[in-house]
Amino acid sequence: MPKRSAAKPSRPASAPASTKAGTPAKRPRATTAPQRPPAGRAAAAAARTAPAASTPPHLPSAAAIAEALSRWFTTARRPLPWRTGYHTRDISPANPAPSAASTPSAPCRDPWVALMAEAMLQQTQVSRVIEYLDRFTARFPTPASMAAAPESEVTAMWSGLGYYRRARNLRACAIAIVEHHGGSVPHTVSDLLTLPGIGRYTAGAISSIVFGQPEPIVDGNVARVLLRIGGMPLDPQACTTTDLLWHHAADLAAAARSPGLTNEALMELGAICCTPRSPSCIICPLRPHCRAAADGTQDQIPAAKKTSARPQIRCTVLVITNPAGELLLQQRPASGLWANMWQSPTHESPAAAPGSTPPADPAAVLAALNLKPQAHLKHIRPAGTFTHQTTHRELLFSVSTLALPRTIPAPTAPSTTRWLAATDLPTLGISNAAKKAITLATSRPRTS
Ligand code: SF4
User: Fold this and answer.
1) Ligand 1 centroid to 274 CA: how many Å?
2) Which end of the chain, C or N, has fewer beta carbons within 10 A?
3) Within the chain, which residue ranges are assigned CATH 1.10.340.30?
4) Closest-CA residue to 264 (of 70, 129, 30)
């Protein structure tokens, strides 16, 4: 599930939200006089033992919950730029977007800006996204403007946001919008899901929040709220739980007068009220509907997920300078971690066994540059170490400096290598970890 704001969830698996292309799934409207769900542990047991093929139960009180959320959101929402700065018309309970499944309502906000914001919000804190969205909107006001830009410009502007695959996907998405949708962001979930990097959550968010379609969304914040309302201490990553959550979110979207408003309210409630720790139940608009609040089981829901140790990789970095003060930088391969990004020459060695730490290997960096280790090893000076976590790996950086007495030709193989001035760095796509290594090395006084 996508990471947004206060919570740190992971992305949901991408899967179509429609039964077939262009036809959003029809779901029965939930009743407003529901039965009370079974109590927390009983509900959990029932969910765990339910046959996999059975249809999940509907969300009780969906219409009442949707209404309470929409009313709360109107006064409690944060004035985030993608909510307030790029509107094409007002959307509120008094002016709800029509929820016809087959015809889009006029977008309530700029669909392209909303799509860029969603791409940035995955895995990145809201406060950081705010810094970048204005810059991107000014430089790339339309999908066509980004489609025409080189990938290196988009990734360079993305520098600092991390998870650079999102930048490449966003540009690929802009190209697909231009080539297949006349330059306009499509409004149906089925069309949105054909775009690069757009998963079930983002498709539902754009379709419902921007175009008013009755499509569900589930991110980490939504999952936590729905599980607590139902009093279900389940692992939100489990397949059966995911099915149940999307089913309940669809009940809400179907029951809502304004599905986009309700969806956004649900995410906002998870971000600022029903937080992972110490939820503010006393002021929560859903308290009358919440089983966890009634049972006092908020702290046990969702169930803690089991974590496994991430594999470790030792990254030996040599920050190499010449007498002109230029830095030798290499471009990473076109696929994999930090694809096409620039960095100081680096050798990566994976741990041989779980828990083992591979040693730093500056000789391997020199050998890859066709530099004789015996001539240069004695001039290498350690600059420091740091650890960088990615979703699947733990990278142990070991940074050293090497001030060459004269400029060597920059090798072109196995990867593109260039001598570059420090002033060139802002124009390149450089990961936060590579920036940190360079800063660590260049901020230390030279000792020889
Ligand atoms: S009442 Fe408490 S636990 Fe229930 S949804 Fe609201 S904040 Fe979350």
Assistant:
1) 5
2) C
3) 18-300
4) 70
pTM of the model: 0.69
CA–centroid distance for 75 within its chain: 27
Q: What is the mean pLDDT of residues 380-384?
A: 92
Confidence check: pLDDT of 40 > 60: no
How many other C-beta atoms lie within 10 A of the C-beta of residue 46? 13
Q: Distance from the CA of 433 to the center of ligand 1, in angstroms?
A: 38
At residue 375 the predicted structure's pLDDT band, cuts being 50, 70 and 90, is confident
- Binding pocket residue ranges, ligand 1, CB within 6 Å: 225, 228-229, 273-274, 279-281, 284, 286-287, 290, 292-293, 298
Number of Cβ atoms within 10 Å of the Cβ of 18: 19
Pair of tokens at residue 44: 């959990």
C-alpha to C-alpha distances, 356 to 5, 363, 386, 396, nearest whole angstrom: 34, 20, 17, 12
Task: Provide the CB-side half-sphere exposure for 402 (13 A, CA).
Answer: 28
CA–CA dist 354, 351 (Å, integer): 7
DSSP string across 353-419: STT--PPP-HHHHHHHTT--HHHHGGG-EEEEEEEEE-SS-EEEEEEEEEE-SSPPPPP-SSS-EEE
- Half-sphere exposure of 225 toward its Cβ, with a 13 Å CA cutoff? 37
Which residues participate in catalysis according to the annotation? 118
Region 217-229: mean pLDDT is 96
Instruction: Report the nearest atom of ligand 1 relative to the CA of 279.
Output: 7
CA 275 / ligand 1 centre spacing (Å): 9
What integer pLDDT is reported at residue 444 of this predicted model? 61
pLDDT of residue 337: 87
Contact at 8 Å (CB) between 266 and 102?
A: no
- Name which residue sits closest to atom 2 of ligand 1, judged by CA: 281
The confidence score (pLDDT) of residue 294 equals 96
Question: Dihedral (C-alpha) 136, 140, 141, 147: value to the nearest 10 degrees?
Answer: -140
Pairing of strands 346-350, 312-321: antiparallel
Percent of the chain residues past pLDDT 90, beyond the cut: 51
The residue whose two tokens read 């204005």 is 134
Architecture in CATH for domain 312-442? Alpha-Beta Complex (3.90)
Q: What is the largest CA-CA distance in the chain?
A: 81
CATH code of 18-300, in short, is 1.10.340.30
